[in-house]
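hey m, so remember when u said the tokens were messed up on ur end? i reran from scratch. heres the input so u can diff it against urs
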Amino acid sequence: MTTDKTSTATAESPVVNQEAADGAATAVDPRLLVREQGLSGYFSEFKRKISAGDLGSLPVVIGLVIICIVFQSMNSEFLSAKNITDISVTMVATGMMAVGIIFVLLLGEIDLSVGSVSGVSGALVAVLTITHGMNEWLAILIAILSGAVIGAIHGFFFAKIGAPAFAVTLAGLLFWLGFMLNLLGDTGTINLDSKGVVGQMTTYYFTDVAAAYGLAIVGVAAFFLSAFFDSRRRAAAGVPSRPLSDIILRTVVLAVFAFAAAFMFNQDRGLPLAFVLFIVALVITDFVLRRTAYGRKIFALGGSVEASRRAGINVTAIRVSVFAIAGTFGAIGGLFWASKIASANQSAGTGDLLMNVIAAAVIGGTSLFGGRGRTWNALLGVMVIVSIQYGLNLEGIATPVQYMITGAVLLATVCIDSVTRKTQKTAGRA
């Protein structure tokens, strides 16, 4: 009798959050919508995402379009081949560091030391190669490994000791900045060999037109084959998969942008080596996050630490490794920065670099609350920041105004992120 009353009371109890229940009931796999409804499925899925607060990269894409329209109308040189090539090279140093920051942000944490770590990386290479005559490749390897070790040290204090990541990396920012200044000595500046490995990281271009178009072909073909075989595997396993028409449409859109970029590169100096290395880094890290068990553990940890621990995930190991990755990419970004200015000096890693790195990750679509983001967000975010800087420079607008505009864009992005999270909770999707 008691059981029957309890069952009856449960069955007749009202739904506490009807909006959440409705949202959960109507959520369907987008691949099924496209398969069942064709092109109209895209619009159905788009409306469902908007109502659920799942904006994805839409705000930053719209922002990039507006930036291009505004600055091109102000100065016809903005979308010139030379300016686009310069932007693609300049953004690599910040973008590389933003890739590492994204790994940390996925945990819902922050790393304030990447700027100083990048300065240490450039200083190490300069001292080892110029002052001590070490082989440049070996010096580069030591610099990158040093970044990984520094990041792991930060991760240890955070994950094992329990100190807040903010405090640990803030201390790291100060400590490694002092370490860099000590490395550079009294002169404060060590010039690099412009024809060396580091020197050519941002100055080498593949002048043959086949290089840019070849990269576009390889990229588009790789995307199509990956999506096609992934769809076949999902279909064979009996789970929702994208129809061929969907894959072809996505491939065509990618091809338009890829070949347009290749055309612009070939109108100037050719395909920049720095841009190629950046794309390779994005592809590899995206694969790690989306296609490996390690990447899924990072997302799980960003969603809930306690749930991850109960699922058997080694929380300490994942946290330490993520900060090591951030340190590694901080060091790699420092090498590109040193190449860009052809030296290692006391200003490396300081100024607005750290803020631009974090802003690039957040503006690109990575959530500050953890659990949501992709490394491709670094590309979108850094494109926004560098495009604004170059557009304002073309108009001769002062640096203080650039800071204010970049800060306003960052604030708007964070507000959008907060609002969308609230909307997702209301719709039962957060």
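this time it looks ok to me. Residues 1-13, 19-27 have pLDDT under 50 and may be disordered. if urs says something different then somethings off w ur setup not the seq
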